[in-house]
Specification:
Layout lengths: L1 H20 L8 H7 L2 H47 L3 H9 L5 H15 L6 H22 L3 H33 L4 H60 L1
Helix pairs in contact: 2-8, 3-4, 3-7, 3-8, 4-5, 5-6, 5-8, 6-8, 7-8
Length: about 250
């Protein structure tokens, strides 16, 4: 009796599995998923691939740029401070010229050059002119520091929706396959499921690092802005002190 029941259960289970898979081998590895994707989903996957390469390029570029700016600024600050302490204006400008990747050097150079162009005397007019030059330089350097960050923000914001578009297309294809083949087996909807899975995962895979990198580099830019503001204020204070000594 028990043997008969087991035989009945096994036969019905096999029949149910055959109905479920429609006698089709469904592969859910990476190549199998890509093979089952339609042209629309492949185009979406290609767009996400391009976005990932673009965001990676921006990350590498900003990391190298910020690292060089930080390194040269640490070397520049004490040297230029020593030169100004000894009232060596030309030496300070030369030091700044040797550290062109430093955000501090670029700002301080603008102020020093404007001060020299105004006659090199610490008058109210030369100090005010140097202050305006420092402000302009800060704005220019700030724009350089933020270069590419808008790309990261855009990719981080849009990549999940691009992936969601692929998900919707995959689900539509799955329902279309069910309606066409008159069956609800996995084999009939494998292509649609693969499209939904791949595009959703790809969208998140591209967006998450982009958002994290954008937040990280934005914090670094804000830190650099504070350093440039402090350096500009210190330089103006130096000019004011020099005027009081006259």
């Amino acid at each position: 009796m028990i043997l008969a029941q087991l035989t009945y259960f096994a036969s019905h289970s096999a029949a149910n599995l055959a109905f479920l898979f429609d006698d089709e081998a469904v592969s859910f590895n990476l190549m199998g998923l890509l093979h089952n994707m339609g042209w629309a989903a492949r185009c979406i996957a290609f767009v996400l691939f391009v976005e990932s390469i673009w965001s990676l390029a921006v990350m590498i570029d900003r990391y190298l740029y910020f690292s060089a700016a930080r390194k040269q600024s640490r070397e520049f600050a004490p040297k230029v401070a020593g030169a100004l302490k000894d009232s060596k204006l030309e030496e300070a400008i030369k030091i700044a010229d040797r550290n062109k990747k430093s955000h501090l050097a670029e700002v301080v150079t603008a102020g020093l050059q404007e001060f020299r162009a105004s006659g090199g005397a610490p008058t109210d007019e030369s100090i005010a002119s140097s202050g305006r030059a420092l402000e302009r330089a800060e704005a220019i350097v700030h724009a350089k520091l933020k270069r590419g960050l808008a790309v990261l923000a855009t990719i981080g914001a849009t990549a999940p929706f691009v992936g969601l578009l692929g998900t919707v297309i995959g689900i539509l294809n799955a329902f279309q396959a069910i309606a066409t083949q008159k069956t609800s087996g996995i084999g009939a909807v494998a292509g649609g499921i693969s499209e939904a899975l791949v595009t959703t995962a790809a969208g998140l895979f591209v967006a998450i690092p982009a958002v994290m990198a954008f937040n990280y580099f934005t914090g670094r830019v804000e830190s650099f802005d504070v350093e440039m503001d402090n350096s500009s204020s210190e330089l103006i204070d130096y000019f004011i002190k020099q005027s009081h000594k006259r």
